[in-house]
Amino acid sequence: GEYLVKYLVVGGKKSGKSSIVSCFRKTDTPSTAKQLLCTEDYMIGGELVKITFWISKREQMQPAQFSLVHAIIVVVSITEQKPFDIYKYWISEARKITA
């Protein structure tokens, strides 16, 4: 069988979204300016699992993005001025659309 898993990765500028996704990549990850979508194939228990990471910025968010994914990964940098306010914003946005 084949399984498709989609993750939406959101967060503020320079929060580390690409760095988080690069942990799952088999190849080097280009900057998000060049690539906002990446897919990796994994064999898990003899099954093909295609994992897609959709990296998004606040100014690019579209409500449809939330409905097309299985999970949302919120990336917040502790170096941001108010990291928990940013976290709360993304959780609020996700709840509005998925409710």
From TrEMBL:
It holds the Pfam family Ras. Transmembrane segments: none annotated. GO terms for molecular function: GTP binding; GTPase activity. Coiled coil: none annotated. It comes from the Eukaryota. Signal peptide: none annotated. This is Uncharacterized protein. It comes from Vannella robusta.
